[in-house]
UniProtKB/TrEMBL annotation, chain A:
Highest taxon of source: Bacteria
CC annotations in GO: plasma membrane
Protein name: Iron complex transport system permease protein
Keyword presence, Transport: yes
Keyword Transmembrane helix (UniProt): yes
Native source species: Wenyingzhuangia marina
UniProtKB/TrEMBL annotation, chain B:
PANTHER family: ABC TRANSPORTER ATP-BINDING PROTEIN, HEMIN IMPORT ATP-BINDING PROTEIN HMUV
Keyword Nucleotide-binding tagged: yes
Protein source organism: Wenyingzhuangia marina
Residue ranges of every copy of the ABC transporter domain listed in the record: 6-246
Keyword flag Hydrolase: no
SMART domains associated with the record: AAA
UniProt-recorded name of the protein: Iron complex transport system ATP-binding protein
Pfam families documented for this protein: ABC_tran
InterPro entries: AAA+_ATPase, ABC_transporter-like_ATP-bd, P-loop_NTPase
Family matches, as CDD domains: ABC_Iron-Siderophores_B12_Hemin (cd03214)
Record SUPFAM superfamilies: P-loop containing nucleoside triphosphate hydrolases (SSF52540)
Keywords assigned by UniProt, alphabetized: ATP-binding, Nucleotide-binding, Transport
Amino acid sequence: MIAIFNIYTGSIHIPFKEIWKVISTQPNASENYHYIITEYRLPKTITSILVGIGLGISGLMMQTFFRNPLAGPFVLGISSGASLGVALLIMGGSFFGSLPYLYNFSIPLAASLGSFLVLSIVMITARNIRNTMSILIIGLMFGSFTSAIISVLSYFSSATELQQYIFWSFGSLSNLQWSELYLLISIIAVSAIGLLFIIKPLDALLLGENYATSLGISIKKTQSIVFIITSLLTGSITAFVGPIAFIGLAIPHITKLIFHTSNHKVLLPAVGIIGAIVMLICDSLTHISIGAKTLPINAITSIFGAPVVIWLLVSKSKKLGS
Amino acid sequence: MKNVILKTNNLNIGYTISKKSVSICKQINFELYKGELLCLLGRNGSGKSTLLKTMAKMLTPIQGSIEINEENIENLSPKELAKFIAVVLTESIPENSLTVYETIALGRQPYTNWLGKLFDKDINIIQNAMLLTDTNNLANKLIHQLSDGQLQRVMIARALTQDTPIILLDEPTSHLDIHHKINIFKILAKICKETQKTVLISTHEINLALKTSDRLLLIDQEKFKIGKSTDNIIQENLMTIFNSDDIRYDSTSNQFIF
């Protein structure tokens, strides 16, 4: 239902009846509407759902694995790596001469390369570290490091380049073609299979690393699976839609507050569903707010999401207090 | 002949700081028998927790080896080891919203399928453990709403649920009132007798240890001793470890007097 409402919202008004005609593939649907919906709105709706699922699940895994409520899908440096890659592509021109430029294709590529590079460095540094908290801090340090480089780049770049970079960093759900969507869907499907192997280890980790070990969990193996899935999910999402903030951090909290459980058998699918719903609502809001102009998705997720999380936390502690 | 379940060979325990290993206790050689209750005594920082963690493979020994049923624990997979040894630790549990029942049920993890589904047999074991530890009235509470003492009983129930031949407990009674302290020692003694489990408790409750344990393990100044509380060598060691102006060992009543 929210998905249909999401298709409904947009700069051109399409009546619900027509949307239904297109979706149920009735022959008398209008050509124009059909084109707008199948080539633009539907991909965007599916993108929102996939992004919500992927970031929500990654966030939950990282929070459980690091046993830190402030961990999110980007703690391993994926978003900072992607930003660095794109920043180098767009603004590095003034340093290295203009790079070969294929707009639609080169940005996801630069983002993937950047996040892969930074992720590899974080992983290699983290390999010999026993303490998982240190890995978290190393990830954050790499984040500061890359953002510093981006600051330097932006200082020396032209206004248009800067604007272009900032527009990318706002995130956009509407740039995906069907072929890219199929790729994203298959990545999420593969990750879902991986998730089946770590439901029990994640539950055991709720008691801390030593108890998990005593229950027969291999921390190293779990760490590898968690990191691979998170990198696949957030890496591909960031490459295609940009660094979507907040969702990965907030969705697990919202889900835990609604479902009152720590059980990952329930939480993992629940986080996926809630993530998808929240992304759809956020995307709809970007279109409603100011008629023809769409707002940046990254701003919406935080403007509407942050108060919701604060409200949920406050009302929860009130309930416990009374 | 007694049944040996666990054996150490020239075990040297300690920890590693920047690739340098620091030994806490060397030449540890002992055998644990089936159905035995043992207490591990020693001053703060003497290496009690280190020994227990090394036995549970959470720390690697500096030298020597540990065998369970004549199999070196280095060759056991984490899951196999989890069917031999259950632990109760002193460390605090990270923030979560697990209920008491869910926490205790986690003890069944080494036996359940990939989804962690509990069958009738598992549920029976869980309920039995809750009954023994007097935690069944807490079942639906969140573990973060419990007092320290209640939490300790829950963690003991969780270890019992793991249904292993060996249970290692690191100061399991430190937060308990005197009633539950004695109660826990009684329960553990009962479990040893009835189910032939081997229970090793590190504790500062010297008098309770002297009364309930079959044998004592002592660690003092890098030296390790094992024996019955009536053995001369154990009594001598106990005196050197704990005797001072304020506390004295009375060998006739087999207890420390404050």
